[in-house]
Design a protein that fits this description.
alpha/beta, 6-stranded mixed sheet, 4-stranded mixed sheet, binds coenzyme A
C-alpha cells in the first residue's frame, strides 16, 4: 500500500500507483458536491501526492457519469454564518494554492456538470479536458452568493473580465463547445473517449523530464500572477536550473548521438 492510500478518505478514491495518479471525488449521490470534508481531503491528498513524489501528472475526476462537481455543497452552506463562510472560502482558496504549487500538472477530467465550485476547482487545474456533454457555469448569484473558491479571479484571468462578468452576473450554464470557444476548457472530446484521451495526454506529459515540467508549471503560473519583468526573470532562472539535472544532460547527449533515440527520464 502507498502513502496517499494509507490515509483513509471518506470522499475520495486515490490511485497513486504509477506516474499518472488519479484522484476521484466520490460523492456521486450528491453529484460530487464540495463540502468541508471533500475540500480537506483534497488538500490532504495533494499534500500526500507531493510528499510521495512519484506522480508526474495527476488527473482529477468526479465519480459517476453525471457530474464532475455540481458545486459547493448547498446543504452544508445553507445555515453558515459569515464567519463560517469565510473559513469555508479560505479552505477552498488554500486548496487552490496547493494545487498551483504542486510540482506536477493536474488535469481536470470533466464528464458532466462542473457548476459553481465545480468550475472553480477545474480552474485550479493546469489543464481542463471536457466531454462534449460537460456543462460549466457560475450560478452562485441565483443562490444569493458569489463564487468563493477563487472563481471570480481565475475565471476572469482565463476567459477575460467581460465573459466572466456575463457568466457570473447572469449565472448562465454553458455547454462544452461554448466553454471551448471562450477558452474556459482546453479540449473537448467525445464522451465515450474522455477517459482514454485524458490518459493519453497525461501519459504524454509523464514521459517528459519531470523537473523541467515542474519548472514550466511554476513559470507559467508566474506569468499569470507577477509583473512581466518578474515572469521573464522566473523563466530565465528556471531554464538555468534545468541544466542542473541529470535528465537534461542525458536527453541532450542522446539527441546529439541520435535524434531519434528513445529518451526516458529519472526525475533528477
Ligand atoms: N450541493 C448539494 N447537493 C447537491 C448539489 C450541490 N451543489 N448539486 C446536486 N446535489 C444533490 C441534490 O440535492 C440531489 O440529492 P438528493 O438525491 O439527496 O436529493 C442529488 O445531488 C442529485 O441532484 P439532482 O438535482 O436531483 O440532479 P438533477 O440531474 O436533477 O440536476 C443539477 C442536476 C446539477 C442541474 C442540479 O443538481 C443543480 O442545479 N445543482 C446545483 C448546482 C449549483 O447551483 N451549484 C452551485 C452551488 S454554489
Amino acid at each position: 500500500m502507498n502513502e496517499a492510500q494509507r490515509m483513509t478518505y471518506e470522499t475520495l478514491l486515490i490511485d497513486d500507483a504509477g506516474p499518472v495518479a488519479r484522484v476521484t471525488i466520490n460523492r456521486a449521490d450528491k453529484l460530487n458536491a464540495l463540502n468541508a470534508t471533500v475540500i480537506d481531503e483534497l488538500t490532504a491528498a495533494f499534500t500526500a501526492l507531493t510528499a510521495k513524489g512519484t506522480a508526474r501528472v495527476v488527473v482529477l475526476a468526479g465519480a459517476g457519469d453525471k457530474a464532475f462537481v455540481a458545486g459547493a455543497d448547498i446543504a452544508a452552506m445553507a445555515a453558515m454564518s459569515p464567519a463560517e463562510a469565510e473559513h469555508f472560502a479560505r479552505r477552498g482558496h488554500r486548496l487552490g494554492e496547493l494545487m498551483a504549487a504542486a510540482p506536477y500538472p493536474i488535469v481536470a477530467e470533466v464528464q458532466g456538470f462542473a457548476l459553481g465550485g465545480g468550475t472553480e476547482i477545474a480552474l485550479c487545474c493546469d489543464l481542463i479536458v471536457a466531454s462534449e456533454r460537460a456543462k460549466f457555469g457560475q450560478p452562485e448569484v441565483g443562490l444569493g452568493v458569489i463564487p468563493g473558491f477563487g472563481g471570480t479571479v481565475r475565471l476572469a484571468r482565463r476567459v477575460g473580465v467581460g465573459k466572466a462578468r456575463e457568466l457570473i452576473f447572469a449565472g448562465h450554464v454553458i455547454d462544452a463547445a461554448e466553454a471551448l470557444a471562450m477558452g474556459l476548457v482546453d479540449r473537448v472530446v467525445p464522451h465515450a473517449e474522455l477517459g482514454e484521451r485524458v490518459k493519453a495526454l497525461a501519459e504524454q506529459i509523464a514521459k517528459n523530464a519531470p523537473v523541467a515540467v515542474a519548472h514550466a508549471k511554476r513559470v507559467l503560473h508566474g506569468v499569470e500572477n507577477v509583473p512581466l519583468g518578474t515572469a521573464k526573470e522566473l523563466e530565465i532562472q528556471a531554464f538555468a536550473l534545468c541544466f542542473a539535472t541529470e535528465d537534461q544532460k542525458t536527453a541532450m547527449a542522446s539527441f546529439v548521438r541520435n535524434p531519434r533515440e528513445l529518451r526516458t527520464f529519472v526525475g533528477k
